[in-house]
Predict the structure.
Amino acid sequence: MKPMTKNLWREIRASRGRFIAIILIILMGCLIFVGVKACGPGLNESMTTTVQDLHLSDVQLLSTTGFTKQDVATAEQVAGASAQRVKFTYVTGGKDAQCVALYGYDKANTINQLAVHSGHLPHAANQIVLDQKAKDDYGYKLGQKFTFDAEAKLKRHTYTIVGFVDSPQYIDKGLRGAANVGDGTVRFFAYVPQAQIDLPVATLLNIRFKHLQGANTYADSYKRARNQKLSELKQVFKARKAARSKEVYQQAAKQLDAQQSKLDAGQKQLTAAKAQVAAASRGAVTTTPELTKQEQALAAAQKQLTKARTKAKRAAKTTYTWQDRSDLPGFSAFGESSERIAAIANVFPVFFFLIAALITFTTITRMVEEARGQIGTFKALGYGKWAIARNYLEYAVIAAIVGGVVGSVFGNVTLPRFILALYHQTIPMTTTVRFEWGSFWLAMLFALIATVGAAAFVVRRELEEGPAALMLPKAPKSAKRILLEKITPLWRRLNFNQKVSYRNLFRYKSRMVMSIIGIAGGCALILTGFGIRDSIIASGQRQYGDIVKYQAVVALKNGDQVAKMRKVLAKHSQYQSSTVVATATATVRHGDESVASVNVFTPQSAQFADYVHLESKQGNKLTLPKRGAVISQKTATLLGATAGQSVTVRVSGKAAVRVKIAAITKNYIGDYLYLSPAAYQAAWGKAATSNALLVRLHKQSDQQRNTLAHQLLQSGTTLGTSYVADQKDTIDKMSATLNPVVVIFIVMSGLLSFVVMYNLTNINVSERIRELSTVKVLGFYDREVTMYVSRENIVLSIVGIVAGYGVGNALTWYILKQATTAQVMFPLVIHWPGYIAAAVLMALFTAIVIFVTHKRLQHVDMVSALKATE
């Protein structure tokens, strides 16, 4: 081993603490950076693997007239498409007449395969498999009987449960969609043999494209390719729509034509009979009472037949409903959740890593500056600049590679799998985590810049001096009067130790700045972790506590049935009050930007303010103007519109109109546009039609909500009931998925803060060991020597914490802005426990570092430290 190489390993052994600290800082920076960056792609890849393994359909097509073999052939005209028909309906059954999404099972179908948890798939006519959710949430067991209500169109109504399964159509165990039977909320899905469903034709067509299966299901490239295929499908089904309508009508018309033939024959007989009567009376009598009765009966029958034919034409009219994967329950929410994690990963780990890199840069710089005597010795012995520089560059490279590789690999392997394991509790999927090579090489680049870059910069500067100058210690910085000294009454009251500490703070400005940056960065990261959690929780609390004051929305079949519905509601003790509104869904456009599925509310009474609280961003209460609309804050942001500008509103079935934005209201979940009755009248030229009821209720249990929704449907006045509690639960569950990520942020930020503070203090003590030894020789006690340097740490910690509060708020705001999705925006909320926790953690780390420093200073070799360098 060459002398310089030996010296390198001796240097590493002699400064083990500093070397390990550098590795740990780089390791944590790379771990967080690569690990968190891998979480978003890991979630998407895992879901993609799951849906590909179970052959989830790319497009689902529903028809009012069902599907035949010809529809399958039509779909498969599109290149790469395979299509399969399935019988599907919503029914009620089981405990408490629960709403069930019922599918027909055919083992020949390969699209939307089922993953069996327990038992087996149905192979006999009396067998049924249920959703795993039915077992977990409702206590169904294998071997039990499951009975459907009499209204269900089934050949039998009681089946034996033989299995519990998962379906790729329902990826989130908490979401199963809505229906127009039962209480309006689908509780779980079920499969029975397809022949058991008593429907003439299949009602669902599943379509899958072979060449799309290799792509990430949430990637833009997949969505573009799918939309292209969807356009082609719509094109080929345009002609099929008319043909199918004709087929269905012709089937119904056969019976009607037979009845028409009988009526035509009866009419001929009647005409002949009337002719005979006229001939017999030589024109004096043209009919008889009996013939008149027959004629009236034939006319009535013809009228009924004409109505039946009109009804048959209406029923035969084919209407298609197109769906893709994003329309499946929970599918988009999962994608938004992974996008939110990816958005956070683009900010938090980068800031984390920058703090780590900055401290590493400082550590390497101090290390090389301390070794100036050694560099001078090497130079005097005749070693070249490159040979000397290589000694320190290799030191930095080893630290960067060890910390970077271990941190990156460990982060990529552990963090995504930890997050996926938590997701797996609510979303069954196959764990798939690929190594993020892009993030790995980026992390390694940052690590090398922070270590090797620092070493190269400082070594180059030191090598410019001669050997004699290098072998002498740097002249200490001269002390200067500080601002505090000019405040005479305060300065006089400080003791000697305090005065020395404050002078030293400003004497070494670079060290002070780096300490404050390190402490502020660590505090900011901890505070940001708490802030992300608090802000995510606050979005649901503010939306459904401060803005939305009602507990349910009841959709009306007819606006004239409000009184009847209120009688049903009044029978329930939880009912408080209700108000009528006109609701619609619109697409709103401003310039090149547009937002689909905007909820348009037009109140029909003055009590609307008791149900929806409209408030400006400044906190001022808003009222609906006679002209113009009040639009939700996020919608305005997405559109890039401000108050006073006009937007184009296109409500389904109505002409597009221009509406001026009168004001912008706070809103955190969903997109809303509010119009007064007068403003609606001015926009569309007619009054809004009442079609929903906002209902205020006392606190209800799940059972009470289900019972009320079921009774409202049975009354025949409603199309369905949606509860705010269900929406809030969905948001809470979606938000809860980020909690593990936040906990990881807080823990890792705390560890980084501790290592940073320890490292900076260690550097401080190493640089000032002669000064501290001098103080100790002069008779200072161990505790006084420790406080001589630790008092500076305490002051810097206080300043760093205060600065960290500001940086933490700014960082949290930026992360939340990046994490905003099309459905949810987050308010900046950091509760006081977050501030206290960040301060307490930083204070605890400071105390630990002071204790370690105290132990070190107790064993300082004063003689060695004070020996003349010459």
Observations:
- The chain has a mean pLDDT of 84.
- The two ends are 30 Å apart (CA to CA).
- The chain has 25 helices and 20 strands.
